[in-house]
Amino acid sequence: MKAVQIVNPSEIKVVELEKPTVGAGEVLVRIKYVGFCGSDLNTFLGRNPMVKLPVIPGHEVGAVIEEIGSEVPGGFEKGMNVTLNPYTNCGKCASCRNGRVNACEHNETLGVQRNGVMCEYAVLPWTKIIPAGNISSRDCALIEPMSVGFHAVARGQVTDNEYVMVIGCGMIGIGAIVRAALRGATVIAVDLDDEKLDLAKRMGASYAVNSKTENVHQRMQEITEGFGADVVIEAVGSPATYVMAVDEVGFTGRVVCIGYAKNEVAFQTKYFVQKELDIRGSRNALPADFRAVINYMNTGNCPVDELITKIVKPEDTLQAMEEWVANPGKVFRILVEL
């Protein structure tokens, strides 16, 4: 079967692999679409310390069930559109013991700590197969990245009488905006790009602030009547946005961190104490987050076409990644059609 492999930094090629066979408790899926995400971009650039090259990328998946192994319970049918839960959990670490399997100490995400599924077929345990109802296989590839944003909103315990500031309107930030708006919160989207901010408003943000051209603190004070945000979700992963999150959250607010900052961040830690902040990490997603995204997408209110920047064939992945590197701010999702 055909597969896409990142061989070395800036080097991608199409390789032939043996088609996997299904075993007991497993499901064979035909992969239709796989999204490139930020971790894949970092792998391509040689900046992902969790990856050992060469690696097959891909964990944002739209697939169709091809074959069902023995000992798989009912509810799965051949031809069903599905997405995949790309994380593993050991069942023994502190996170697993506490029921937060998404943050397993020994997690191995597809395409990161182990080979992904940017290939024609894949076999997974039935527990990692997520039926997606009437969602097309193309649009199923959007579910996992949106679920990460949905999970951040859950971590922030967002309610309907709160101001929620989302810093970064990429795919994961958009997921957070959607979920916070669905919960009834007043959402303030912050980004450097006006096109992304316009999309954020169509996805549920009440306010849009361009941090490149506007005074963010002044705008936040105006919008929140001087109180600051009740919840700030950081979905960029830069020192500047981490500091912004702590500066703009209100007293006794919550800061939820999704992005990984590549460099050390210098904080005025007095705000941690003075504001009595809750600072929370948010990693991956839980099955409930996947279900929430699927429910949302099944309403027909998600402008899926606007979230897909480009669809390419495996042979064109190198060119697509080079274009993404050259203009990263203009890409939401690049999908590979297999």
Automatic annotation (TrEMBL):
Domain Alcohol dehydrogenase-like C-terminal: 172-296
Classification via CDD domains: Zn_ADH7 (cd08261)
Domain Alcohol dehydrogenase-like N-terminal: 23-131
GO molecular function, one term: oxidoreductase activity
Keywords noted in UniProt: Oxidoreductase
InterPro entries the record matches: ADH-like_C, ADH-like_N, GroES-like_sf, NAD(P)-bd_dom_sf, Zn_alcohol_dh
Entry-linked Pfam families: ADH_N (PF08240), ADH_zinc_N (PF00107)
Name of the protein: Alcohol dehydrogenase
